[in-house]
Write a structure and sequence with these properties.
- There is one protein chain.
- The protein is mainly alpha-helical.
- It has eleven helices and three strands, in the order ααβααββααααααα.
- Strands 1-3-2 form a three-stranded antiparallel beta sheet.
- α2 crosses α4 and α9 runs antiparallel to α10.
- It starts with 16 loop residues before the first helix and ends with a helix.
């Protein structure tokens, strides 16, 4: 799974160092390889569950029994419980007394509240970005949009989501307010999970044309239109959500891509 665009590759966007550092803090690598002990194996288990949710293999309500996870990852219950607690903190799983862990299933009201909060935050962020951007910022965004256009022809849906996430975080980097970026990162993680869980297969996580219009308005200095377009864009994303998903018939190992 591609978590973000690799900015170190040849031909990648030349992000200013201060923004590259902030971006790394906002979007930590979830794909670190497993090690034989300690925090690395915990990160590997966390990343495996997270990846399986984003790739729509783990569906809402799927049980994550501790004994099964211990066997699949060859670790103790203490390790699994630490990972499950972290997943609960990030709203990826729910820990139910005497029933164990299940993949979280946001209610329609929670979904509405999350998207409402994100819209309120991002229209403010794009306003700041529209007033503060530099020519290099716009060039970087155009380069990213060109890559995004290529990805829209890729049938691999998680690639769309990763590219869309990158675009929104880049707008936040242009705004250059680490506090707003931190709040946005948390909301985007929850939105990404909702989209992965409930968006119908084949729908783009974000529409490329809408992203392009946002950058067009930023370049023109049309702050009001940039705000309005961002609001419409996020409303359309919410409207694409379908809260009706059936249960999977795969085994837990298959859903975690381990067998």
């Amino acid at each position: 799974m591609k978590q973000s665009i690799d900015m170190s590759d040849e031909g990648a966007i030349a992000t200013p160092p201060r923004r590259r550092a902030r971006k790394a803090e906002a979007a930590p690598d979830l794909g670190a390889p497993a090690a034989s002990h300690g925090v690395d194996i915990e990160q590997h288990i966390y990343a495996t569950v997270f990846d399986s949710v984003l790739n729509q293999r783990l569906t809402p309500g799927t049980k994550l029994p501790e004994p099964a996870l211990c066997e699949l990852f060859n670790v103790s219950r203490a390790v699994i419980r630490k990972v499950l607690q972290r997943l609960e903190h990030d709203r990826i799983v729910e820990l139910r007394p005497n029933k164990g862990a299940v993949i979280a299933a946001p209610t329609p009201e929670e979904t509405r509240q999350i998207f409402e909060a994100r819209r309120a935050l991002e229209v403010s962020i794009v306003e700041i970005a529209a007033r503060r951007h530099t020519p290099q910022d716009l060039a970087d965004l155009r380069h990213l949009l060109a890559h995004e256009h290529e990805v829209t022809h890729n049938p691999y849906q998680p690639a769309w989501a990763a590219c869309a996430r990158e675009f929104h975080l880049r707008i936040a980097a242009v705004a250059d307010n680490p506090i707003l970026t931190a709040y946005l990162t948390e909301l985007m993680t929850r939105c990404s999970l909702i989209v992965a869980l409930y968006q119908p297969i084949g729908n783009a996580a974000c529409e490329h044309a809408e992203h392009s219009r946002i950058v067009d308005y930023m370049e023109k200095g049309d702050v009001a239109s940039a705000r309005a377009e961002m609001g419409r864009h996020l409303r359309a994303l919410e409207d694409n959500i379908s809260l009706d998903r059936g249960a999977s018939t795969q085994t837990l190992a298959q859903m975690l891509n381990l067998g």
